[in-house]
Write a structure and sequence with these properties.
One of its GO terms (biological process) is negative regulation of cell division. GO terms for molecular function: ATP binding; ATP hydrolysis activity. It holds the Pfam family AAA_31. This is MinD/ParA family protein. It is a single chain. The chain has two domains: 120 residues, Rossmann fold (3-Layer(aba) Sandwich), CATH 3.40.50.2300; 276 residues, P-loop containing nucleotide triphosphate hydrolases (Rossmann fold, 3-Layer(aba) Sandwich), CATH 3.40.50.300. By secondary structure, the chain is α/β, with parallel strands linked by helices. It is elongated. Strands 8-9-7-10-6-11-12-13 form an eight-stranded mixed β-sheet, sandwiched between helices. Helix 12 links the parallel strand 12 and strand 13. It contains 15 helices and 13 strands. 43% of the residues are buried.
Length: 409
């Protein structure tokens, strides 16, 4: 979260209205660097008008060498050419009038996008080892992400052949546990502060087992815990889970918040969930463009159409034309899905031969690189970032062992 230094109480209160929840205000350079040392994932520092230009320049120069990926935004009551020149030479990325809250908010959004892009570039340069992270994402709530996450997790288990866990990253309003009628004693909230000593034993204590063999890491019980789950914690958690599970399914929040962006950075396969209504398709279109800009899961995105009923006037062909992306799988509207959810027993378990179960299983097979037709090998990959679902590998990952199913049992 951004941190603000050197602003009087009135200015600080105004600036905080356009900063993300959890942003901090400090009153000295010592406290600023003390905070940054404890939170190396901070992506933006705002230097307020109360800090003189020479001191602000010195702070920016220090941060340029010690924290080069952190954006420094200089807030001034008046902005002139001299200040701009000095600031830019010192490594300040933006100089903004403190009273122009729209510009302040825009600067922070750009700082966050830059931080995510930098993390993404670093991630793409390393080979993930171990299990594969499958992220279920949609920018619109209520499209069935949680139901699909649970059923896909069970399908990926292949009757116990693979070890699979589902992580509820909808940290404010996650429903994975209640969907499975589980009452966990621990959640991801209990991992806060454990980044430095997180290991298999630590993680196993936070998990809740389901009767199917699926392991669940539940969301916090209180929404306010979301602010204390940092991106660093999410990244460390996923790296540890890779060592224990063949597949890690993430049910994410319907927003590009810090935790979701971090999860997307770690994603091997991204399932984008949409329904056949114009508002959802509009939001999914924007989300796909954002994923393109950030370089997330390029060539490894799969479009899942949920409640796919063409009687509403939008066909799958139209969806593909609107989104510029092939539909990987369609799950038709069915009361059986709702009944199974209300009973706490996912459709993949209660009715494995149901058409919707078969659709989810076909998606799982594609993710595992299992041919779903008469072909002996999976279809070849496509290079466009919004790839066809039948893709089993990409050029940049074709040598990775994660493209194959490796049992850890």
């Amino acid at each position: 979260m951004p941190i603000l230094l050197g602003a009087d109480p009135q200015t600080a209160a105004q600036v905080l209205t356009v900063l993300p929840q959890g942003s901090q205000v400090v009153d000295s350079a010592e406290r600023l660097f003390g905070w940054l040392n404890a939170h190396p994932d901070e992506y933006a520092v705002l230097i307020g008008p109360s800090v003189g230009v020479p001191d602000a320049v010195a702070l920016a120069e220090r941060m340029r060498t010690t924290m080069p990926t952190t954006t420094v935004v200089l807030l001034r009551h008046e902005v002139d050419t001299t200040v701009l020149t000095q600031a830019m030479h010192a490594g300040v990325r933006e100089v903004v009038a403190a009273q122009d809250l729209a510009q302040v908010g825009g600067a922070i959004q750009r700082a966050h996008a830059l931080a995510v892009a930098l993390r993404g570039n670093q991630a793409s340069g390393r080979n993930h080892e171990g299990g594969r992270v499958v992220t279920i994402f949609s920018p619109k709530g209520g499209v069935g992400k949680t139901t699909m996450s649970v059923n896909l997790g069970i399908a990926l288990m292949r009757g116990g052949e693979n070890k699979v866990c589902v992580v509820d990253l909808d940290l404010a309003f996650g429903d994975i546990a209640i969907t499975l009628q589980l009452f966990p004693t621990h959640s991801i909230e209990h991992a806060i502060g454990g980044e430095s000593y997180m290991d298999e034993q630590f993680i196993s204590q936070l998990m809740t087992p389901h009767e199917s063999g699926l392991m669940i890491l539940a969301a916090p019980s209180a929404p306010d815990a979301r602010e204390r789950v940092s991106g660093v914690l999410v990244a460390r958690l996923l790296q540890t889970l890779r060592e224990q599970f063949d597949y890690i399914v993430l049910d994410t929040a319907p927003a590009f918040d810090e935790q979701t962006l971090t999860a997307l950075d770690e994603t091997d396969e991204c399932i984008v969930v949409a329904t056949l209504d114009v508002p959802t398709l509009k939001n999914v279109k924007v989300a796909l463009e954002t994923l393109d800009v950030l370089g997330v899961a390029e060539g490894h995105r799969h479009l899942l159409l949920n409640r796919a009923d063409e009687q509403v006037g939008i066909s799958a062909d139209k969806v593909e034309g609107i989104l510029g992306m092939d539909v990987a799988v369609q799950v038709a509207t069915s009361l059986d899905i709702a009944k199974a959810t209300n009973a706490g027993r996912p459709l993949m378990l209660s009715a494995p031969s149901h058409p919707s179960s078969k659709a989810v299983r076909s998606l799982a097979d594609r993710l595992m690189g299992i041919a779903t037709d008469s072909a002996a090998t999976p279809p070849s990959p496509r290079t466009h970032s919004s790839s066809a679902p039948a893709q089993a590998s990409s050029d940049k990952r074709e040598d990775s062992p994660k493209r194959f199913r490796i049992s850890r049992r």
